[in-house]
Amino acid sequence: MVTVRKTDPALMDKGSQRPRELSPAAREREQQHRQFKRLIGQLKGPEQVFEVRLDAKEKPITIRQRLLRVASEANVEIAVRKHGDGFLVGLLTPERRTNRGRRAAAAPKS
Predict the structure, then answer these.
(1) For residue 69, which of 29, 21, 101, 97 has the smallest C-alpha distance?
(2) Where are the alpha helices (DSSP H) in the chain?
(3) pTM
(4) What is the side-by-side order of every strand in the sheet holding 86-91?
(5) Are 36 and 47 within 8 A, CB to CB?
(6) CA-to-CA distance for 60 and 66, rounded, in angstroms?
(7) What would the pLDDT profile of 55-70 be if each residue is shown by its tens digit?
(8) Does the residue 69 lie in any domain?
(9) Does a structural domain hold residue 18?
(10) Does the residue 79 lie in any domain?
């Protein structure tokens, strides 16, 4: 059975509670997101390449996906390549594009 009772209208107008404070891990992710955003903003041509080194606690696939997500949000195509214990990041050029997982296009017949 549902209970209905009258209450103070100020409860309805108060709005939501104050936002929760971010956890240290969430703050670190947010800082990393801003750092990646700055990095991608600095990519002006194919001659600019940045190295991203990973900590022991970072997973390479996670960092790679975050880089690609930030680039996608900025409408910038980037190439990410393994290098040592990290990655190299640069603008995507035809030479840097891979055809991994795709068959070569058949030559048009005349």
Answers:
(1) 29
(2) 10-13, 24-41, 60-73
(3) 0.71
(4) 49-53, 86-91, 78-83
(5) no
(6) 10
(7) 888 899 999 999 999 9
(8) yes
(9) no
(10) yes
Structural domain that includes position 58: 28-91
- Name residue 52's beta-bridge partners: 87
Q: Whose CA is closest to 53, among 92, 90, 96, 84? A: 84
Lowest mean pLDDT among 6-10, 55-59, 82-86: 6-10
User: Around Cβ 79, how many Cβ atoms within 10 Å?
Assistant: 18
Strand partners, 89: 50, 80
| C-alpha distance across the termini of the chain, in Å | 78
Residue with the larger pLDDT of the pair 16 and 7: 7
How many structural domains does the chain have? 1
Closest by CA position to 91, among listed 75, 102, 105, 104: 75
